[in-house]
Amino acid sequence: MKASKPLLRRLPVYLNYLKAHEEEYPYNISARQLAEALNLREVMVRKDLAAVSNKGCSRIGHIRVDLIADIEAFLNYSNVTDAVLVGAGKLGLALLEYSGFEKAGLHILAGFDTDPVKRRNAAQPPVYSMSQLESFCRSHNIHIGIITVAPDQAQKVCDALVACGIQAIWNFAPTHLISPDDVLIQNEDLAASLAALRMNLEYRYYDK
Amino acid sequence: MKASKPLLRRLPVYLNYLKAHEEEYPYNISARQLAEALNLREVMVRKDLAAVSNKGCSRIGHIRVDLIADIEAFLNYSNVTDAVLVGAGKLGLALLEYSGFEKAGLHILAGFDTDPVKRRNAAQPPVYSMSQLESFCRSHNIHIGIITVAPDQAQKVCDALVACGIQAIWNFAPTHLISPDDVLIQNEDLAASLAALRMNLEYRYYDK
DNA sequence: TAGATTGTTAATCGATTAACAATC
DNA sequence: TAGATTGTTAATCGATTAACAATC
Hints:
- 2 copies of one chain form a homodimer.
- By secondary structure, chain A is of the alpha/beta class.
- Helix content of chain A is 47%, strand content 16%.
- Chain A has helices spanning 5-20, 31-38, 42-52, 64-75, 90-96, 100-103, 133-140, 151-163, 190-207; strands at 28-29, 62-63, 81-86, 106-113, 127-129, 144-147, 168-171, 184-187.
- The interface between A and B is large, with 64 and 64 residues.
- The structure holds a DNA duplex (24 and 24 nucleotides).
């Protein structure tokens, strides 16, 4: 029942590819074809697909639309989760208005910011004052919070979100957050990701 | 010599913590203290630190500033890499102006966009027309490209970057890119990351 | 000295890959 | 039938964790 982290990260990639390549695979697609397109090992893809769907047929593979449905069902994409975002700076606004999250089952209901200039009551999603955070989270029963503030404010915002009953935090600030054990924190550290990219690039030179 | 991917992702986290907690650890810090602060296992931190520094002393641990220097040296932060970004939409602009990358050794020299409205010659970094991409990359000898365009344009942009001699691509578009084997692609798939967060949150409910 | 800390060697764990039987 | 494909069981691989000797 419980899926591994790598699997959870690969499933949206499969999903994305399956949705984007309707013309190429109008009806069915095999693990092999998917693996080759995505540059992954066939066996791994086969095992991944077996984990989320039992509709694979020999000789045929998977029915494209069924596979999409099974992956979405597995990832619970139909069960949309509401979220709030704190920090309506450039990154925050970009995320607020990014349409891709809706497809992935996340609905960012509103943003919050201490800076009155950043507020916008009319736009969709709106950006409100921090003082409204708790009542908003409570009344909408929000469980997910996204942090896109400056690193030195992140812990304070984290504490505020926890106080509002938030259960999972997606942290874009390059700060290690301290939170109660029952609050899930996922760090999206772009600088760390970048470090990995640069190092891999350098190893390449080194190997040559 | 070659570092594992998990290690490469933890090092910037250590670095970040070490830099931010000068008052707490004015001189030395032990693997144990670092591990507890970051909620990691002591042994793992110890092994990680041993991989990048040989200056650890029994009873004392590591000298904070030396450790910072060793991690930065290991990650080659002094060797700043130049990069270009294609797609000056909200996310693109946010990344263009994010100061954290400089500290991590990435200097985004310029952005490029097909939309004349998005261009800005005066701002820093500037945003130019796509037609200038190749000459810019060639003349500045750029090896890293960042893609922040819409998914349906990502492959085209990827091809253009490859044609400009780019060797590594950091892709923020939710699209699997096809590229020559010697071009390194790192996908930063926020929707995939989100899926992992949501699933972990759900498992939690399930466990209860 | 005793205790805190290091680095290293061996054991464990989890994920990927290989091998293969089953099916259409 | 032969071949393409599936799902599953066993082997491998790599990373984490445990155990421990060495040091100040």
